[in-house]
From TrEMBL:
Taxonomic source organism: Jannaschia seosinensis
GO MF annotation terms: structural molecule activity
Protein name per UniProt: Phage portal protein, lambda family
Annotated region described as Disordered, given as residue ranges: 458-496
Top-rank lineage group of the source organism: Bacteria
BP-aspect Gene Ontology terms: virion assembly
Bias type Basic and acidic residues, positions: 478-496
Length: 496
């Protein structure tokens, strides 16, 4: 071995050092049984998707922690709605577009059960449970009486069969119900005509599929791997722990219930002799002894009473539950207190620390999934439909698509400190007032219009409040400098 080779080995760059760094690839005693297949995520979804989806739906319905986590996920993801703020330059046109959109949101649901922002919440819940949701854009006739003849229809993951894979009649490929062309673009979705688990819909014995063009369908899901074509339930990493913990709690509850039913056991020498407090035998011949309050019972010779003292759950039960639910919360990517509702060990610092990290993840999903996959395509189709229906007069439809989606505001643990920090940031020029207002979930132009209207009304009525509209820190005009009697005519002091 040369001097250079010995130097490399001494520096930890030889083959032995490389093998040490790849310990996870070894096949020694500890890792001999760990041989996972190197399969693509689409293969895993196609094979285990239906069962995983069925278990996830049952878990969210029957498990309290899963149901609470689902609602917390949806409420933090969309809240009261991710709302658009048009970036059209023409102020008048921008105002008309915003007002028409606000009126149309009440008619957006094809089922008529909620508005557009309620549909966002339903999509967020489906992402948690099923990992994906399909939104079909349904054009309507002019005689339907809608402001803009367009509505949204939500379709569950089960409506697109996982098992539908193979060549299409036109030469395209169908993978898990999605049709792709020769260069990998989505061109159609093959939906079932009815839900496979809905026994109330008996239109067909076996649900048939119908081909829907991809231009009319939005597939909302979070891609976690490159090339992934179907979504995975957000609850999937925590499913096993939640299911087993639920079984453990049920078994513990039944054990305590059974133990509490037996108050005591009586031993007697002669089985034919009556017991103290014995009642008439049941239908199966079992005699039960009961006592009344204040009973003074004299035992017969040979009788003995032993009262039941069932075993407690033990001191480790609470710690075990806490650690298991911590693991569940980490698997779900949700703070512990949002999953369990337990804030006994929380304080301002700990709550804020975990909320900051959690909200970073939520913002990633808001902008990368909800706004990009759901809101922007609907906004573009809505503008186009409104233009064709004569509701909008857009000189440049492409420029009118420019929009900023404002997520709901975050309610912090101590809002006073956050508002003070925002005011200091605006005064220092670190941020703009627009960004501060939009962080609260509102459109800055709408807020300004409301402030102007409030200020005008207050001035007309001659009212005066401690903080009147138009006299806030951001809107106060710079006061003119009044002349000082000690100054000269040119404004300079007599001492200058």
């Amino acid at each position: 071995m040369g001097l250079f080779d010995r130097f490399r080995r001494s520096r930890g760059r030889g083959p032995a050092a490389v093998r040490a760094r790849l310990e996870g690839a070894m096949s020694k005693r500890r890792l001999r049984g760990w041989n996972p297949p190197l399969e693509n995520i689409n293969t895993l979804v196609a094979s285990g998707g239906p069962k995983l989806l069925a278990r996830a739906r049952e878990l969210v319905v029957t498990n309290g922690y899963a149901a609470n986590a689902c609602e917390a996920f949806a409420s933090n993801m969309v809240g009261d709605g991710i709302k658009p703020s048009s970036l059209i330059d023409d102020a008048g046109l921008r105002d008309r577009v915003q007002r028409l959109w606000l009126a149309w949101t009440d008619e957006a649901d094809a089922d008529g059960l909620t508005d557009f922002y309620g549909l966002q919440a339903m999509v967020a819940r489906e992402m948690f449970v099923a990992g994906e949701c399909f939104v079909r854009m349904r054009p309507r006739r002019a005689e339907d009486g809608l402001l803009v003849p367009l509505q949204m229809q939500l379709l569950q993951s089960e409506m697109l069969p996982f098992e539908k894979t193979g060549p299409a009649a036109n030469g395209n490929r169908i993978r898990c119900g999605i049709e792709f062309d020769a260069i990998g673009r989505r061109v159609a979705y093959h939906f079932r005509r009815s839900h496979p688990g809905d026994s109330t819909d008996q239109r067909v014995a076996v649900p048939e599929t119908v081909r829907v063009p991809a231009a009319d369908v939005l597939h909302i899901y979070r891609p976690i791997d490159a090339g992934q074509i179907r979504g995975l339930p957000h609850v999937a990493p925590a499913m096993v722990r939640l299911f087993l913990l639920d079984q453990y709690d049920d078994a513990e509850l039944d054990r305590k219930k059974t133990a509490a039913m037996f108050a005591g056991f009586i031993t007697k020498t002669a089985p034919e002799d009556p017991m103290m407090g014995e009642t008439e035998p049941d239908l199966d011949g079992t005699a039960i002894a009961s006592l009344e309050p204040g009973t003074m019972q004299v035992l017969l010779p040979g009788e003995d009473v032993k009262f039941s003292s069932p075993a407690d759950v033990g001191g480790g039960y609470e710690a075990f539950q806490y650690r298991t639910l911590l693991a569940v919360s980490a698997s779900l990517g949700l703070p512990y207190h949002l999953v369990t509702g337990d804030v006994r060990q929380a304080n301002y610092s700990s709550l804020r620390a975990e909320l900051v990290e959690f909200r970073r993840r939520v913002q990633q999903l808001q902008h990368g999934v909800i706004a990009h996959q759901l809101c922007r395509p609907i906004w573009a189709r809505w503008l186009e439909t409104g233009q064709l229906a004569g509701r909008l007069d857009l000189a440049d439809p492409v420029a009118a698509r420019m929009v900023q989606w404002i997520p709901p505001r975050w309610d912090w643990v101590d809002p006073l400190k956050d508002i003070q920090a925002q005011v200091l940031a605006m005064e220092a020029g670190i941020t703009s007032r627009r960004k501060v207002v939009e962080a609260t979930g509102y459109d800055v132009e709408e807020v300004d219009r409301e402030n102007a209207a409030d200020a005008a009304r207050v001035a007309d009525l001659g009212l005066r409040y401690r903080t009147s509209p138009g006299e806030t820190q951001g809107a106060r005009a710079t006061p003119e400098k009044r002349p000082n009697p000690a100054d000269g005519a040119d404004g300079r002091t007599t001492q200058e």
